[in-house]
Amino acid sequence: MANDCGRLYIVATPIGNLGDMSPRAVEILQTVALIAAEDTRHSAPLLRHFGIDTPMVAYHDHVERRLAPRLVRRLQAGESVALISDAGTPLVSDPGFHLVRAAREAGVEVVSVPGPSAVMAALSVAGLPTDRFVFEGFLPAKAGARRRVLEALRDEARTLVFFEAGRRLVECLGDMADIFGADRSLVLARELTKRFETVQSDTAAGLRDWVAARPEQGRGECVLVAGGAPPPKGDEIPAATLNVLNELAQALPASQAAALAARITGYKKNALYRHLLSNPPDDE
User: Fold this and answer.
1) In which band, very low, low, confident or very high, does the pLDDT at 283 lie, cut at 50, 70 and 90?
2) What is the bridge-based pairing of β-strands 221-226 and 7-11?
3) In angstroms, rounded to a whole number, what is the distance separating the alpha carbons of residues 34 and 57?
4) Picking from 31-35, 74-78, 240-244, which range would have the lowest pLDDT averaged per residue?
5) Distances from the Cα of 12 to the Cα of 18, 29, 133, 157, 215, angstroms
6) Over the stretch 5-49, which tens digit does the pLDDT of each residue have?
7) Among candidates 181, 177, 184, 183, which has minimal Cα distance to 212?
8) Is the pLDDT of residue 102 over 50?
9) pTM above threshold 0.70
10) Is 56 within 8 Å of 103 (Cβ atoms)?
11) Among 9, 121, 209, 247, which has the highest number of CB atoms less than 10 A from its own CB?
12) Burial class (CB within 10 angstroms; exposed 0-12, middle 13-18, buried 19+) of 237
């Protein structure tokens, strides 16, 4: 890294409770030359609360590609810049990718200042497996596109995490009940760390009905956590196939072992992959 360059700090900010702001985050935001904020109007009250008067510039989807080179030039000139989103950890379904990539390519040091994350907060309280999970961000707003995405994820064995707008929550839960199955385990984590926080667990159909009966649950920031697809009933893997699979899994990642075992044995790759996720091989 060039010694005369400034640093680009990726700073996590509270998702609701201001008490979650870290002292390090406050210090960084007070000392950098500029804060690139997703929405300066949204971030202004947060900065005022912590006595931060650092200049801000709006950095959102519509200006990201145009503004990133300008910020990199400032970084190369020796100024440090902090990137913040409206809430939580930047770049998680928020702008910033182009800036981080451009900064790294220019030899600028990029430093994480970790903290709140709605994804991790929801996973930590959901009571579903967290050793392997998939984050899918926001589902498409239109029903047809949303259902196509859910169809593609129907057989995913890992825990799934989605962001969803409150106004589409009932419709989305209905699609999940139809496509994932009415009995699939789901958790709604709404308004996390805020006054009206909700964490509700149920089946897909049960959660859809629970939310439909409570209009207030259709407001605010929502995270949906879905349990992974269960193995098909009656789909017992033959012992010989398991032997091949387990041997391959000692030397290969689960996805590669399952794919190769499927080619060798003719057994279904998805079923083999689900088996490995549920029964990882012991290290020797």
Assistant:
1) low
2) unpaired
3) 7
4) 240-244
5) 12, 11, 21, 30, 31
6) 999 999 999 999 999 999 999 999 999 999 999 999 999 999 999
7) 177
8) yes
9) yes
10) no
11) 9
12) middle
* 251-266: average pLDDT: 91
C-beta of residue 66 within 8 angstroms of C-beta of residue 44: no
Question: 10 Å Cβ neighbour count for 138?
Answer: 12
What φ, ψ does residue 247 adopt, rounded to 5°?
A: -65, -45
State how far the Cα of 42 lies from the Cα of 87, in Å rounded to an integer.
9
In our burial notation (b when 16+ CB lie closer than 10 A, e otherwise), range 253-278 reads: ebeebbbbbbeebebbebbbbbbbbe
pLDDT tens, residue by residue, 125-178: 999 999 889 999 999 999 999 999 999 999 888 899 999 999 999 999 999 999
- Quickly tell me which residue has 């259709």 as its tokens: 218
Q: Which two tokens stand for residue 239?
A: 């012992």
Concatenated DSSP letters of the chain: --TTS-EEEEE-B-SS-GGG--HHHHHHHHHSSEEEES-HHHHHHHHHHTT----EEE--TTTHHHHHHHHHHHHHTT--EEEE-SSBSTTSSSS-HHHHHHHHHTT-EEEEE----HHHHHHHHH-S--SSEEEEEEPPSSHHHHHHHHHHTTT--SEEEEEEEGGGHHHHHHHHHHHH-TT-EEEEEESTTSTT-EEEEEEHHHHHHHHHT-GGGGSSEEEEEEPPPPPPTT-PPPHHHHHHHHHHHTTS-HHHHHHHHHHHH---HHHHHHHHHHSPPPP-
The yes-or-no verdict on residue 3 having pLDDT over 80 is no
Angle between helices 143-152 and 169-180 (to 10 degrees): 40
Amino acid at 90: P
